[in-house]
Design brief:
This protein has 158 residues and is α+β, with helices and mostly antiparallel strands. Helices cover 43% and strands 36% of the residues.
């Protein structure tokens, strides 16, 4: 009887410890995916895209109404971005995931050269990417940021 109770207590303790580890693992996985996402945009190297995204990625820049479906359309979008704003950096603010969905909050800093208006000025804007995850890669992304913040910083909006 004492042996059965001891084994039961040990099993319950192991399950409780395991539940905590699984919760930490989900957020650790989320941070890794989020950092790979931002590293992709910071490195500006499309050859690494499918380490981060699935080949059937749906990538939406909601602010501009741009939707890229699949690897070829996404490649066109990403390479256009790399060319338009080569002096862009993204910094992770916060990430959160639950199951196969998550969000990545980031700070985007860039120099408008060649840029939107060719001012040569820097702008900083916070944004968020709402993601769907398949395995350890992103299968769907929706980016949201306030373009009027960018316009004000570039002297295009009062």
């Amino acid at each position: 009887m004492k042996q059965t109770i001891a084994v039961t207590v040990m099993c319950v303790a192991m399950m409780l410890m395991g539940a905590h580890v699984r919760a930490d693992d989900e957020q650790s996985r989320c941070r890794r995916i989020s950092q790979k996402f931002l590293d992709f945009w910071n490195l500006k190297d499309f050859s690494t895209a499918f380490n981060v995204f699935t080949e059937d990625i749906v990538y939406e820049d909601v602010t501009f109404g741009q939707v890229s479906r699949g690897g070829e359309e996404f490649k066109t979008f990403a390479e256009g971005f790399f060319t338009l704003l080569p002096q862009s950096t993204f910094t992770l603010v916060k990430s959160s995931c639950s199951g196969q969905h998550g969000s990545i909050e980031w700070l985007w800093s860039a120099v408008d050269d060649p840029g939107f208006f060719r001012t040569g000025d820097q702008f900083d804007v916070r944004g968020v990417s709402v993601i769907a995850i398949h395995g350890n890669r992103i299968s769907h992304t929706r980016d949201y940021y306030d373009y009027s913040t960018v316009l004000r910083q570039l002297g295009q909006l009062q």
